[in-house]
Amino acid sequence: MHALKVTRAEDFPEWYQTVVREADLAELSPTRGSMIIKPWGMGIWERIQGELDRRIKETGHENYYFPLLIPLSFFAKEAEHVEGFAKEMAVVTHHRLKAVDGSLKPDPEAELTEPLIIRPTSETIIGDAFSRWIKSYRDLPLKLNQWANVMRWEMRTRMFLRTAEFLWQEGHTAHVDEADAMDETMLALEMYRSVAEDVLAVPVIAGEKPENERFPGAVRTYSIEAMMQDGKALQAGTSHYLGTHFAEAQNIRYQDKDGGQTLAHTTSWGVSTRLIGGVIMTHGDDDGLRTPPAIAPRQVVIVPMLRGKPEDEELKAYCASLASELGGVSVFGSPVRALVDLKDARPADKRWDWVRRGAPIICEIGPRDAANGQVTFIKRNALREGEKIKSHTLPRADFVAQVAAQLAATQQELFAEAKARLDKSIRSDFTSFADLERYYGTEDTEGEFKGWARVPWSRPTGAALEEVGERLKALKLTIRNAPLTQPSSFGACIFTGAPGVEEILIARAY
Amino acid sequence: MHALKVTRAEDFPEWYQTVVREADLAELSPTRGSMIIKPWGMGIWERIQGELDRRIKETGHENYYFPLLIPLSFFAKEAEHVEGFAKEMAVVTHHRLKAVDGSLKPDPEAELTEPLIIRPTSETIIGDAFSRWIKSYRDLPLKLNQWANVMRWEMRTRMFLRTAEFLWQEGHTAHVDEADAMDETMLALEMYRSVAEDVLAVPVIAGEKPENERFPGAVRTYSIEAMMQDGKALQAGTSHYLGTHFAEAQNIRYQDKDGGQTLAHTTSWGVSTRLIGGVIMTHGDDDGLRTPPAIAPRQVVIVPMLRGKPEDEELKAYCASLASELGGVSVFGSPVRALVDLKDARPADKRWDWVRRGAPIICEIGPRDAANGQVTFIKRNALREGEKIKSHTLPRADFVAQVAAQLAATQQELFAEAKARLDKSIRSDFTSFADLERYYGTEDTEGEFKGWARVPWSRPTGAALEEVGERLKALKLTIRNAPLTQPSSFGACIFTGAPGVEEILIARAY
User: Fold this and answer.
1) Which pLDDT does position A79 carry in this prediction?
2) Among A438, A452, A441, A439, which Cα is nearest to A503's?
3) Given Cys at both, which of A201, A215, A323, B381 links A292, Cβ 3.0 to 4.6 Å?
4) Maximum distance among all alpha carbons in chain A?
5) Which element (helix H / strand E) includes A72?
6) pLDDT surpassing 70 at residue A85
7) What is the pLDDT of residues A391-447, one digit of tens each?
8) Cβ–Cβ of B34/A82 closer than 8 Å?
């Protein structure tokens, strides 16, 4: 018996929705395609923001805030970008409502001369500012970031993974030349790898996207790809070298040292609340989420076993002093986040609420614990022994002395578990497309999943690449990226038979 | 000669726009009515957010995120609220663009069945969630907050003070009864007072708004009012007790202890990026902004007097080690935020850039300072002696030892200066409306401004209050609030001659 009604093996997509709901992370809103992010989900996002924002600032970027609404004409400037984004966007056409026959309607007299688009991403309006701000080589590099909500109209939504509105961070930079812009592109990618692996405990593979998977308008797109427990890939962050495409479209030129006018090279890069979906599908189990301690809004939750009796007060005092003592301990560079759960509910219900949310350490303190000066607790990432819940008891002083090490160990264990799964689930023994077809052409058996393939290819382009895409699509597969770390020699391309020039990752993907 | 081209005395509104631009706080964007917030402005906002968010969480509120877009029908539910907000709002009517004759247009086939409104505030969509989440008295109080962008279409915009899009925080809570909801309303008001006075160094007067100035749908509205240097009032934050109006409109009911169904009492409260406008008009001078140290993105800026010579390296090393040493000092609970400005520009230009932005302490380090182990610096809030810039020199160890005390003193001095101005600029000697008319009926003389009036009134309501409003409007005056602190007896009402029941503040306002 597990805490969730559906297991990963039974129905992974349904399990995912159940965790989102039961861990109180988010819920669907009455606005089609948008979600309400609840405190446990928001607390995780705030910690991701904090960790990433620190890295962004330490590497010389500054935060700005640009308008939510972008004039329609801005999207017409960069042809490929329009093609990629101009389709499904929310369009503001009126600025006033009017009561007509007792119901509210957009006021025809308040129609905008030029419609405004809710930003799907901000290259166009930030590029416009770059063209005004950048005059000389002395103004470069210009490295900025913004935390914002963006909107892409989506027909099929899935919470955190694909919603019309989502929260994200978008970095935008301008540089004197390709070399400097490429350094920036790789720096952003490395920040993302570090946040994914060191903060979210989600192992990823960083690499370059094939040309047909590039961001609209980019010269090169890089991604970090994470493996979910169903073997699918989740693109968890992207970094783009945009060359001079946006600079040409928006006239971003600078006076170089010789007095000439030169086009700037730009980059952009982003990660979003989608990362939370990745955390769920990496660390969740059949009892709910296991939140990595580094991002857990509460790292230690203390549930007093109250009985509505006079002794309760003593128990509450014991728990409060324990929480306060824990707050004096430092872990991951901050005080331990401890909470005494005094909600008016049964202690057992409270325990299971925290198990489903995945608080890393859950203490259940009864009168005997208080009397003996001890702490009884469960570790969320090693919840059970067989079917039984595994409980531990330590003298209070020992518990407090060990709590930081315990949380750090949990963080490591979650990463190691996911890393072992990733490593063993990438097959690199396919030598032909027929091999691949045989393997991915069969259904997964219950509880077993097919992981990724790592294969050599000859890096076809244009029509030849499109054909590769079609062949993979028939197997519901896509090329994820060409990992940054490559061997020194390659087998023959499994698509064309030509000599391989690099290895690529192939997977089913979210 | 001052650093700005226009002084406060010459043209206060023009001076304000000049500070916003020259202190690099924000600029107008190509999206009508929206601004681009730049790093110095954003850094100030991030620190306001941090301080307020901590207080919000410490008082038991949790952060959520609700959708940007609200279905139109939600606005029809609470009649007064619609009346107050349904007019100037951005309306999304389409979800796709289409290329027509080479230009992009909203696709007629992608018209939404129900238009969506960009939130002007979120009572309606949050109330809808409350009605689903609140079942029993055990679910109360429900205390939530969200940090978000909102939009109110404005015809005349002024940066930070009134823009179509702005950033804010909105608290929304539900309670079992009026007493609990009123405690919450006053708690939020007190948080705002504390952030304004203790963090922004902006003295305020907290009080209740008259009925004609209430938030649409509120039973009682409270505000904090700050005095700008031109004598006008700035409403810097509001807190609303909404009674059961929204609960009725949205069916927010709970099962009470006796099993009956009872309407919840709700509150809402918010502050926005407008606070930055208040900081500028409270602390700015004719050399730019004087940023209160508690919210200054950089508290100590070190400008090395580089000459493009080999000795520069030694100077840079001295400055870097000074900055790093300052980073080890704690002030206002955080490490001192020090920066070495290595931008490729003339040292004198850099100094003036930081004077205009209002970095609290600006160090100018030349080879002699480095050789003698000393620090030469200016204090932004006491920049000049007569017309001359006043510079100080201290042994480096003394400078480092005193820096925290110096920053704390600056924070206090800025507050004391503004408080003295507020106190001396409230006249309470008006005994009739004719008195008021005589005083406010004349033009301000250059550099002199009229402050506020504090007068007794009989708290007229309905048509009588409207008449009072009209009489004040003719003098460009409004009632700001009835201060929380009141004397024990009152003179006659200056409007009606009837016995006074409280004192109110009257002022010109932003």
Assistant:
1) 67
2) A452
3) A201
4) 84
5) none
6) no
7) 999 999 999 999 999 999 999 999 999 999 999 999 999 999 999 999 999 877 766
8) no
* Min Cα separation B447/chain A (Å): 35
Interatomic CA distance for residues A47 and A296, integer angstroms = 8
Pick from A386, A341, A313: nearest CA to A2: A386
Q: Render pLDDT for B82-124 as a digit per residue (tens, 0 to 9).
A: 676 657 899 999 999 988 887 889 999 999 999 999 999 999 9
Residue among A29, A62, A70 minimizing CB distance to B31: A70
Q: B242-298: per-residue pLDDT in tens?
A: 999 999 999 999 999 999 999 999 999 999 999 999 999 999 999 999 999 999 999
SS3 B192: helix
Which residues in chain B have their CB less than 8 angstroms from residue A140's CB? Answer: none
For chains A and B, count residue pairs whose Cβ atoms are closer than 8 Å: 182
Contacts of B93 in chain A (CB under 8 A): 91-94, 106
**Residue by residue, what is the 3-state secondary structure of A181-223?**
HHHHHHHHHHHHHHHHHHHCCCCEEEEECCHHHCCCCCCEEEE
- Quick check: B345 and A138 in contact, CB under 8 A? yes
Residue A195: closest CA among A221, A162, A163, A171: A171
CA neighbor of A183 nearest in space, from A140, A125, A241? A241
Whether residue B94 and residue A91 make contact (CB cut-off 8 A), yes or no, is yes
**A443 — phi, psi (to 5°)?**
-70, 150
Distance, CA of B75 to CA of A17 (rounded, Å): 30
Q: Is B447 left (phi over 0), alpha (psi -120 to 50) or beta?
A: left
- Provide the CA A50 distance to its chain's centre, in angstroms: 14
Task: Give chain B positions within 8 Å (CB) of A149.
Answer: 68, 148-149
B246-249 CB contacts, 8 Å cutoff, 24+ apart: B246/B78, B246/B81, B246/B123, B246/B127, B246/B217, B247/B127, B247/B130, B247/B174, B249/B77, B249/B78, B249/B79, B249/B81, B249/B127
User: For residues A125 and A81, what is the distance between their CA atoms, to the nearest angstrom?
Assistant: 13
- Which one of A35, A52, A66, A92 would you mutate to disrupt binding with B, by most B Cβ within 10 Å of its Cβ? A92
d(CA B41, CA B38): 5
The radius of gyration of chain A from alpha carbons, rounded to an integer in Å, stands at 26
Q: Which residues contact A346 (CB under 8 A, 6 or more apart)?
A: none
CB atoms within 10 A of CB A172: 27
Q: Does residue A387 register a pLDDT over 90?
A: no
Among left, alpha and beta (phi > 0; psi -120 to 50; other), residue A200 is alpha
Cα B46 to its chain centre, rounded Å, is 12
The answer to whether the CB of A334 falls within 8 A of the CB of A386 is no
Query: Rounded distance, CA B378 to CA B362, Å?
Result: 5
CB contact under 8 A, A96 and B104: no
**Are B36 and A71 a contacting pair at CB < 8 A?**
no
Beta-sheet strands, E only, within B73-203: 91-94, 97-100, 103-106, 111-118, 142-151, 165-175
The β-bridge partners of A207 are: A223, A483
Per DSSP, the three-state class of B144 is strand
How high is the pLDDT of residue B447?
Answer: 62
Q: How confident is the model at residue A87 (pLDDT cuts 50, 70, 90)?
A: confident
Residues 6+ apart with CB under 8 A from B78: B123, B124, B217, B245, B246, B249, B250
Residue B382 Cα distances to A436, B92, B201, angstroms:
74, 50, 16
Determine how many CB atoms are found less than 10 A away from the CB of residue A474.
Answer: 11
Q: If 0-12 CB within 10 Å is exposed, 13-18 middle and 19+ buried, where does residue B7 land?
A: middle
All structural domains of chain B, each given as residue ranges with its CATH number in brackets, are 12-283 (3.30.930.10), 300-422 (3.40.50.800), 426-507 (3.30.110.30)
Nearest to A68 among B95, B144, B165 (CB): B165
How many C-beta neighbours within 10 Å does residue B113 have? 6
CB under 8 Å to B350, separation ≥6 — which residues?
A: B303, B341, B343
